[in-house]
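As promised in the previous annual report, we have extended the structural survey to additional targets. Below is the entry for GIY-YIG nuclease family protein.
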Amino acid sequence: MVHAALTEPDRLWSAQEVLVRPSPVPAAAGVYGWHFEKAPCPDLDAGRLLYVGIAPRYMANRTSTQNLRKRVRYHYRGNAAGSTLRLTLGCLLGIELRRVGSGKRMTFGKAGEATLSQWMAENARVCWIERDEPWTMESELISQLDLPLNLDQNRQNPFHSRLTEVRSQARKRARELAVSA
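The corresponding C-alpha cell record, generated without further manual editing, is:
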C-alpha cells in the first residue's frame, strides 16, 4: 500500500503547485517520492519514481524541525549543499558544481541553481504520504523499490556506482576551481 502510494500515486505535484502559499504539502512527518517527466540522464526512465526521501530524519539526541513541506519546497528551490537530490540532479545534468562562501560548501552557484530550479519546475513531480516515524520505512522502501537516484543504503542498485562516480567527479572539479562569490 505504501509502495503504491509512491510508485503509482493518485496525484503528482509540480513546483508551481507546491511553492504557492498556502502550500498543499502538509507540515507533517512523512515520506516523499520524486517522479520525472524527463529523466535527468538518458540511462534512466522518465515518468516513474526515481528517488524517495523522508522528513524528518531520525535524530537520537534532538528533535528535528524538518517536515514534508519544508523538505519538498527546499528541494524545488534550495541549493545542492542542502539537498542531495539537487546535487544528484545537477551533476547528472552537467551543471558545474562550485565551492562557495568559505569554500567548504558546494552548490551550482546562483546561475546554476536557477537553471536546476527551472529544470525541476519543468520536469520534477512529487508525491508524499504522511507517517509519524518515516525513518522506520526508509530502508524498506530503498531495498524493495528500484530507486536509482538514492545513494544511501542503495549499493545494490545498478545505477549506484555510476551516480557515485558522477558526483565524485563533480566535487573533484569543484575543488580545482576558485571559490565562487
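Strands lie at 30-36, 49-55, 98-100, 105-107, 124-130. The two ends are 47 Å apart (CA to CA). These points will be discussed at the next consortium meeting with the crystallography subgroup.
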